[in-house]
Amino acid sequence: MSLLDDIISGATDDSVTTSNLLRKVQIVGHYVEAEKITGWVKGELNGYLLGPLPAYRAKLGTPVMGLWTGPFGTSATQPVSSSGVPTEAADPLFTTNLHQSLAELEDLAGLPSDPGVSWDPQHVAMYNVWIEEGKVPHIEMMGLLSAQRVVTRAALRGVINTVRNTALDFALNLQTTDPAAGTLDGPTVAEPQIAQSIYLVTNHIYGDGATVAHGDNTTQTTHLNKGDIDGFIRAVRALGVGDAIITELQGAAGAEEAERPSKLKAVMDRIRSGALALGTKVSAEVATSQIDQLIQHFLGQNQ
């Protein structure tokens, strides 16, 4: 069996640990020279100390349980509502980023009760100010003493399952593209088909981060957000396309938001028909596919 076969069978076998599965992904990623894949594996195995978090680990919505205290020593443990909380303050109070290693997440998922992440005392004090100002719901005659964001074990298991599913997608995509991928002398990301196959996986991992392959032997990583015209044009320009296409795409991207999809589609139709020359060293098929994907990121249609 090849390494890809091992990953595919292991991803569906509960007796194979997720950590061992990822180590095989790391080997394949090394052989195909997919730095973003090997970086992802290292982040999962060692924890994410630097760099962006995968989309499935970032800003997870978490319920909050608070300890409320009142007159004569009364107390109650009740949920804390996000209603009325200023938008800019909601993320640190009601979402959680999971930087821990996969092994730590597995340990947390195996606890007898859901783990919690305590609010900073300054956040508790700020919430009490909002109570005094009448901005947020509260228990009559009580103030908030402490609060915890509850990271449910179900959510943790969901993250772990996402990792396994991503490993499976990675192996299946490569095997479909070229069964020799993942071998010592097999194909690498220098081949557009392999680069495209890996893009489909890394796009799923990092969400709006678009990996753009261009040229014969290089890849470029661009983080493109919805509506980011400058980022969109830079990413397209990095493909080495002609000025005429840049001008057409820039004009379509700068149109009213409701008109952008139809205008960008019209440009893509002209590219596909040959009316607009690509003027790039990348094959027309690959470049067209990459521009189309960048358009999806720009329009926010890649979710």
UniProtKB/TrEMBL annotation:
Annotated InterPro entries: AbiTii
Pfam families according to UniProt: AbiTii
UniProt superkingdom: Bacteria
Positions of the AbiTii domain: 2-197
Protein name: AbiTii domain-containing protein
